[in-house]
From TrEMBL:
<dbReference type="GO" id="GO:0006163">
    <property type="term" value="P:purine nucleotide metabolic process"/>
</dbReference>
<dbReference type="GO" id="GO:0046872">
    <property type="term" value="F:metal ion binding"/>
</dbReference>
<protein>
    <submittedName>
        <fullName>Ribulose-phosphate 3-epimerase</fullName>
    </submittedName>
</protein>
<dbReference type="GO" id="GO:0005975">
    <property type="term" value="P:carbohydrate metabolic process"/>
</dbReference>
<keyword id="KW-0464">Manganese</keyword>
<keyword id="KW-0408">Iron</keyword>
<keyword id="KW-0479">Metal-binding</keyword>
<dbReference type="GO" id="GO:1901135">
    <property type="term" value="P:carbohydrate derivative metabolic process"/>
</dbReference>
<keyword id="KW-0862">Zinc</keyword>
<dbReference type="InterPro" id="IPR000056">
    <property type="entry name" value="Ribul_P_3_epim-like"/>
</dbReference>
<keyword id="KW-0119">Carbohydrate metabolism</keyword>
<dbReference type="Pfam" id="PF00834">
    <property type="entry name" value="Ribul_P_3_epim"/>
</dbReference>
<dbReference type="GO" id="GO:0046496">
    <property type="term" value="P:nicotinamide nucleotide metabolic process"/>
</dbReference>
<dbReference type="GO" id="GO:0006091">
    <property type="term" value="P:generation of precursor metabolites and energy"/>
</dbReference>
<keyword id="KW-0413">Isomerase</keyword>
<comment type="subunit">
    <text>Homodimer.</text>
</comment>
<dbReference type="GO" id="GO:0016857">
    <property type="term" value="F:racemase and epimerase activity, acting on carbohydrates and derivatives"/>
</dbReference>
């Protein structure tokens, strides 16, 4: 079995000491980091623009996974993403609930024309079948295991049914998407997620609020 990818969410990092947070990730041999963009509209919280990401990218070699929890308000949909794309993300995730069908198509085209992995997220209450028509195109599916908006919430176990469904569909239809989970991941919930078929896990408070970052990363990967 392939090793689970652990992507620390910088939402829970100490912003007064980002160098130390980057160093902790490097020491734990982290390959991917997760960057949560929120707009106080799609979700009741506000986070980062692209400047902090640019600074992180300029002082590290991580692959970047940008999780947009936003409703795009720019006249031209694509304009919103320009500065983030300059940060060279490996993957960009938008919530399917925040876009029209036409915007989802634009988001797909934007990712592909910039050689960025195309990823869609689904909130806990969203029916997984909203993704049906995108399954063959998706490089990644982000299953939210908490309501999007805040770190430190409790894992919602019911979402594992979606993971199991996507994992079996992936196998039978030879689909290519990665199955990612985000929210409430710790040493207990990570095992349940891995058993259900999760391949990539985001963890924020569990990692950054700990003194033993590397040990916690290892605890998420192994039984
Ligand atoms: C929440 C964010 C998550 C958050 C996870 O909406 O998408 O990435 O940082 O934090 P934890 O791991 O603390 O639940
Ligand atoms: Zn996230």
């Amino acid at each position: 079995m392939k090793e689970i990818i652990i992507a620390p969410s910088f939402l829970s990092a100490n912003f007064a000491d980002l160098k130390k947070e980057i160093a902790r990730c490097e020491l734990a041999k982290i390959e991917w980091i997760h960057y949560d963009v929120m707009d106080y509209d799609f979700v009741p919280n506000l986070t980062f623009g692209s400047k902090i990401l640019k600074d992180i990218v300029n002082s590290s070699k991580f692959k970047i996974d940008i999780h947009f929890m936003i409703k795009v308000k720019t006249k031209k949909f694509e304009d919103f993403f320009v500065e983030y794309i300059k940060c060279n993300p490996t993957m960009m995730t938008m919530h399917i609930e925040s876009m029209t069908r036409e915007e989802t198509q634009k988001f797909y085209d934007l990712c592909k024309s910039n050689k960025i992995m195309f990823s869609l997220a689904v909130s806990p209450k969203t029916d997984i079948h909203v993704l049906d028509e995108w399954l063959e195109k998706l490089d990644n599916i982000l299953i939210m295991s908490v309501e999007p908006g805040f770190g430190g919430q409790t894992f919602i176990p019911e979402v594992l049914k979606k993971v199991e469904y996507l994992a079996s569909l992936k196998k039978t239809n030879q689909l290519n998407y990665i199955i990612e989970i985000d929210g409430g991941i710790n040493e207990h919930t990570s095992k349940k997620a891995a058993n259900a078929g999760v391949e990539m896990m985001v963890a924020g408070s569990y990692l950054f609020e700990s003194e033993n970052f590397t040990e916690k990363v290892e605890a998420l990967k192994h039984d």
